[in-house]
TrEMBL record, chain A:
The keyword Heme does not apply. Signal peptide: none annotated. One of its GO terms (biological process) is endoplasmic reticulum to Golgi vesicle-mediated transport. SUPFAM superfamilies: SNARE-like. Keywords: Endoplasmic reticulum, ER-Golgi transport, Golgi apparatus, Transport. Gene3D superfamilies: 3.30.450.70. Part of the multisubunit transport protein particle (TRAPP) complex. It is found in: Endoplasmic reticulum; Golgi apparatus, cis-Golgi network. This is Trafficking protein particle complex subunit. Belongs to the TRAPP small subunits family. BET5 subfamily. It comes from Ascoidea rubescens DSM 1968. GO terms for cellular component: endoplasmic reticulum; TRAPPI protein complex; TRAPPII protein complex; TRAPPIII protein complex. The lineage of its organism: Eukaryota, Fungi, Dikarya, Ascomycota, Saccharomycotina. PANTHER family: TRAFFICKING PROTEIN PARTICLE COMPLEX SUBUNIT, TRAFFICKING PROTEIN PARTICLE COMPLEX SUBUNIT 1. Its main location: endoplasmic reticulum.
Automatic annotation (TrEMBL), chain B:
It is found in: Endoplasmic reticulum; Golgi apparatus, cis-Golgi network. Pfam families: TRAPP. It comes from the Eukaryota. Belongs to the TRAPP small subunits family. BET3 subfamily. It comes from Ascoidea rubescens DSM 1968. One of its GO terms (cellular component) is TRAPP complex. PANTHER family: TRAFFICKING PROTEIN PARTICLE COMPLEX SUBUNIT 3. This is Trafficking protein particle complex subunit BET3. GO terms for biological process: Golgi vesicle transport; macroautophagy. Keywords: Endoplasmic reticulum, ER-Golgi transport, Golgi apparatus, Transport.
From TrEMBL, chain C:
Coiled coil: none annotated. It comes from Ascoidea rubescens DSM 1968. One of its GO terms (cellular component) is cytoplasm. It comes from the Eukaryota. Pfam families: Sedlin_N (PF04628). CDD domains: TRAPPC2_sedlin (cd14825). InterPro entries: Longin-like_dom_sf, Sedlin. This is Sedlin. GO terms for biological process: endoplasmic reticulum to Golgi vesicle-mediated transport.
Length: 161, 190, 141
């Protein structure tokens, strides 16, 4: 069972609910008042966990010792966290895009699928669309119909198997 | 490491990149530049600026495509960044591999030297005396590099040093690292 | 033996003109036209333009061979698909070489067209083009 998909960019929130197969209204920036509390809570939890994960890694390869504001340790990436009722799978790109998939706790690994959503749908329909903004303003969602429809059908196909 | 990187990039170029006709590409870019010159009344400094802005818009989107295709992780140093840009980035998108040279001692600046430039095939700058001194024909490349690196938290200043179209010996772009951009964190959380 | 070469655009305007001298038989490549001939050359070419326009529809080849004769001077012509006319004024019949010359000039012209800053019917001022024409003269004329 897949419950929902969230996409956060470097600043804002764009959200989709596969069961309704329609994008819900949502959004806000990291720094402003978010309309939907659950989005804010989810983002906060993931952000903190991600920082903990990277800070708890030992400093393996600090190569460039000429600059002190470098922080390129061998990164440890957060993959998912689980509670009694759901598991949240997390995938982050180098450009700051965060993909979160909420499923039931029995599903173990969705990294591959999140990566698919990124490469086959986000890059194709959103990044390559020169008319869609790269830095979304607060309250703006991904408007591309193609993106929404294809992601919806992809996730529905996942739920069936 | 660099041999493996090169073969990986070759493999991506051969199998997973759609190819288009180079003349179509060159002529399209050429008409963009010449139309810009006409629109801005041959104010070549303004043309350079506009080309860089266009490049930045391309770069912020191209980086997503690049990350999706290569699945590259974070580079450990600016040197590695330079190697990846020249061996993987340029290879995938333009099928050229510029040379990385002229590293400064603190490792914060390097140059890319191009021995061929598909954007500028068959181009001769107009003969009005100003173009040869002021116009950087392929300035869109500088914008692309700047925009793309900005999305991965590197603030880099990119500019042309020399260009064969202007009569110099080689085409060279200089990249200077200004600073690393910090990740954005939600308000009230630090 | 000297040659006078002109490229005429679609509006009957000259895009490029050159006086060339032969390199064969000990020639040194400098054209040797008398002063009166120098003035007359463009006129001769211009007057044969009408003939070119008639002939170009009669045949489907691009090379029109010798189209006119002026007191011992022959005029050969070549029409590109975009109606640019290459005209050569020469004294001796040398059809095969002149045809090859025209074909290579066509290649040069194509490369000029690929320059985004060049529009059709602009005069060709590039020195590179000049030197390449001289090389072709050496080769064929």
């Amino acid at each position: 069972m897949i419950y929902s998909l969230w996409i956060f960019d470097r600043h804002c929130i764009i959200q989709q609910d596969p069961k309704a197969a329609r994008p819900l209204v949502g959004g806000g920036t990291v720094n402003l008042n978010n309309d939907i509390d659950s989005a804010k809570l989810l983002f906060g939890a993931l952000f903190s966990l991600r920082n903990i994960a990277s800070k708890l890694t030992s400093n393996v390869n600090i190569i460039d010792n000429t600059s002190s504001d470098l922080d390129f340790q061998k990164q440890n990436y957060l993959r998912s966290f689980a509670t009694q009722n759901y598991r949240a799978h997390y995938f982050e790109t180098l450009s700051g895009l965060k993909f979160v998939l909420l499923t039931d706790p029995s599903i173990q690994d969705m990294q591959k699928h999140l990566h698919e959503i990124y490469t086959n749908f986000y890059v194709e329909y959103v990044a390559k669309n020169a008319l869609s903004p790269v830095d979304f303003k607060p309250g703006e969602l991904i408007g591309s119909e193609k993106f929404i429809n294809s992601v919806d059908s992809y996730i529905l196909s996942l739920s069936v198997t | 490491m660099s041999k493996a990187v090169r073969t990986a990039a070759d493999e991506i170029w051969k199998n997973r990149v759609e190819k288009i006709n180079v003349e179509l590409f060159t002529l399209t870019y050429g008409s963009v530049v010449s139309q810009l010159c006409r629109d801005l009344n041959n104010n070549y400094c303004e043309v350079n600026k506009q080309l860089e802005i266009m490049g930045e818009n391309i770069g912020v989107r191209l980086i997503e495509d690049f990350l999706a295709r290569t699945g590259a992780g974070r580079c450990n140093s600016f040197k590695e960044t330079g190697e990846i840009i020249s061996k993987v980035g340029f290879k995938i998108f333009l099928n050229i591999v510029p040379q990385v040279t002229n590293w400064t001692d603190n490792g914060k600046q390097f140059s890319l030297v191009f021995d061929e430039n598909p954007l500028a095939e068959f181009v001769e700058l107009p003969d009005d005396g100003k173009a040869v001194k002021e116009l950087w024909y392929s300035n869109v490349l500088c914008g692309v590099l700047k925009g793309a690196l900005q999305m991965v938290q590197l603030d880099v200043d990119v500019s042309f040093v020399s260009d064969v179209l202007r009569g110099h010996d080689q085409t060279e772009i200089k990249l200077r690292l200004i600073r690393y951009l910090k990740d954005e964190i939600p308000a009230g959380e630090d | 033996m000297s040659y006078y070469f002109a490229m005429i655009g679609t509006r009957d305007n000259p895009i490029y003109e050159a006086e060339l001298g032969t390199f064969k038989q000990g020639g040194d490549g400098t054209p040797k036209f008398s002063a009166e001939m120098k003035e007359l050359n463009p006129f001769i070419i211009h007057s044969s333009l009408d003939i070119v326009e008639d002939l170009q529809w009669a045949t489907n080849s691009l090379y029109l061979k010798i189209i006119d004769n002026y007191y011992g001077y022959y005029v050969s012509a070549y029409v590109t698909p975009t109606n640019i006319k290459f005209m050569l004024l020469h004294e001796n019949k040398n059809e095969e070489n002149i045809k090859q010359f025209f074909i290579e000039v066509n290649d040069l012209y194509l490369k000029t067209l690929l320059n985004p800053f060049y529009s059709v019917n602009d005069p060709i001022k590039s020195t590179m083009f000049d030197s390449k024409i001289k090389l072709l003269t050496k080769k064929y004329l």
